Amino acid sequence: MNRREPDSERALRLLIVSQYFWPENFRINDLSAELVRRGHEVTVLTGKPNYPEGYIFPAYRADPAAFDRFGDVPVIRVPVIPRGQSSLWLMLNYLSFAISASLVGTWKLRGRPFDAIFVFQTSPITAALPAALLRRLKRAPMLMWILDLWPDTLSAIGVVKSPRLLSAVGRLVRFVYAQCDRILVQSRAFEPKVARLAGGAGKIRYFPGWAEAIFDTGSAAPVEAAPELAPYADDFKILFAGNIGEAQDFPAILDAADALRDTPGVRWLVVGDGRAAPQVREEIRRRGLTDRVVLLGRYPLERMPSFFAGADALLVTLRNEPVWSMTIPGKVQSYLAAGKPLLTMLDGEGARVIKEAGAGLVAPAGDGPALAAQARRLMEMDGEQRASMGRNGRRYGLQEFGRQHMVDALVSWIDECRVGKKSMDVPTATRS
Fold it and tell me: In CATH, what class is 13-210+402-430?
């Protein structure tokens, strides 16, 4: 990271609480690096890396000390139970971080002051509990960035089915929201639900994702295609990158691949891993699609521009569930920055973005045959039509999801909360 000298009047001491952090691939890595580049002091409280495979990364087990810093960011890690491959292990993973970060994390951070605490809230909401405790101990404002809407997400992926338990999770969410000085939502469609649980919209702010710095190619030389794609050089390559999980609806993706099995020249390539990967691999074999759908495995974020460069279309999908229709998948911003046409199977906010941008073709969520039809349509377009979609997407991404603008807004919200918290801490008799 190229660290800039801090502005003494505006430099902030920030604690980021996130169950997931480098070497796991999440946008919080890019945000922490950008904040440090701007001169702020950032510390991260996180767990031991185990996402998405479900086991502690071998490189971390071999040399934990190598992961104690992310550039200029000190990383405080606490023990967690790995996610494993079942719902039970996943729940234990969620619970273990909440407890470990609250106890071990609080001890490791003793005596260290912070101007604000920032929570990166993908699943689970329980990851915010240590931050709520630290908010009280450190007397610092707490901001939370919501990327997964609980309890809706739990119901959508089938992890929790009991109405009584979902109601209990809803009460937990209300408690967490009450601790927040600002609640940041990645989609405007989140706002009504969050407002109901937060007791109003006053502290809610819209804060969508952006393309990580690695995708800021600008006027640089074109990125070379990943050598792993060389065997498919003559194919029309539809590339999916990211987590292989329940939310991504791989059964419907395989329905589309099945529908196009006799279409020459089309190849579905998957770069990533996740809890559903073993089942997806078995289903590919069962359907006889091993020559059409290729799981290439997991690669670091730094390699993604080369994979995107070698693709003809970038695939993003979400299951047909109300909560996912309110979501803009995190990979959309990175896909837009890549300047490639998008092939999507989405409803709601995600579909709106793609259509508004003119960046690709959209099939309804859960509709594999419609996805196949859109894939065929994209294949039959001439190269200039597809290139125009890519340019549209890049332009739209810069306008709507520019990182500089988003981080400027975040810093201003942190400053507002910090100043407000200080004024609240001043004894009443001394206030003007």
Answer: alpha beta
Query: Mean pLDDT lowest for which of 124-138, 360-374, 409-423?
Result: 409-423
What pLDDT, on a 0 to 100 scale, did the predictor assign at position 324?
84
Distances (CA, A) of 258 to 267, 346, 403: 11, 19, 38
Res. 48 pLDDT band, cuts 50 70 90: very high
Domains 13-210+402-430 and 217-400 alike in fold: yes
Confidence of residue 239 (pLDDT cuts 50, 70, 90): very high
Query: Which tens digit of pLDDT belongs to each residue from 190-230?
Result: 999 999 999 999 999 999 988 888 887 554 568 899 999 99
> Domain limits of the chain?
13-210+402-430, 217-400
Residues 69 and 43: their CA atoms lie apart, in Å, by: 9
Residue 428: pLDDT band by 50, 70, 90 thresholds? very low
Confidence of residue 24 (pLDDT cuts 50, 70, 90): very high
Cβ 147 vs Cβ 127: under 8 Å: no
| 3-state SS record for the chain | CCCCCCCCCCCCEEEEECCCCCCCCCHHHHHHHHHHHCCCEEEEEEECCCCCCCCCCHHHHHCHHHHCEECCEEEEEECCCCCCCCHHHHHHHHHHHHHHHHHHHHHHCCCCCCCEEEEEECCCHHHHHHHHHHHHHHCCCEEEEECCCCCHHHHHCCCCCCHHHHHHHHHHHHHHHHHCCEEEECCHHHHHHHHHHHCCCCCEEECCCCCCHHHCCCCCCCCCCCHHHHHHCCCEEEEEECCCCCCCCHHHHHHHHHHCCCCCCEEEEEECCCCCHHHHHHHHHHHCCCCCEEEEECCCHHHHHHHHHHCCEEEEECCCCHHHHCCCCCHHHHHHHHCCCEEEECCHHHHHHHHHHCCEEEECCCCHHHHHHHHHHHHHCCHHHHHHHHHHHHHHHHHHCCHHHHHHHHHHHHHHHHHHHHHHHCCHHHCC
Give the integer Cα–Cα distance in Å for 194 and 191.
5
Tokens representing 376? 């065929």
Tokens of 144: 């939370």
Over residues 261-296, the pLDDT tens digits come to 999 999 999 999 988 999 999 999 999 999 999 999
Say which CATH architecture domain 217-400 belongs to: 3-Layer(aba) Sandwich (3.40)
